[in-house]
Amino acid sequence: MIRLGLVRHAKSDWGHPGLADHDRPLNARGLRDAPVMARRLADTRFVPDVIVTSTALRARTTAGFFAERFGLEPVALEDLYGAPADELLRVAAAQDVPSVLVVAHDPGMSVLAERLSGDIVHMPTCAVATFTWWQDDWDVATALDPDEWTYDTPR
Description:
It is a single chain. The protein has 5 helices and 6 strands. By secondary structure, it is of the alpha/beta class. α2 (57-70) links the parallel β2 and β3. α1 (28-43) runs parallel beside α2. The chain starts with a strand and ends with a strand.
């Protein structure tokens, strides 16, 4: 079984005009939503083997809440910062484990979620989508539609 989880980073703080985009922290809502969504994902029995995250502060912080819930250390990858859908999927498959959780940004997250589900049109901040294929090979699995998927948002 191949499982892919997509988490769009939680709501970020725009209150620091001179701060680079890469360095924006989470705002109060983001800090509230991320642990809630991590718990809700864990309640679905989705268990990642690895969590990969964009190097942006808001993504790394979001990933930290999920990592804490699953007892993992997130892996920050520069390739995920602003990555398009194809790159998100390539990075997930390259982890060479059955279950990967990716924490990254839009528009790539929404494009990939829509492509895989045929139904999800937008991944709002801290949304979580999971995709499951009854295959054992990432290349085979991701060439097919998922056998099942879930979608959850903080609101």
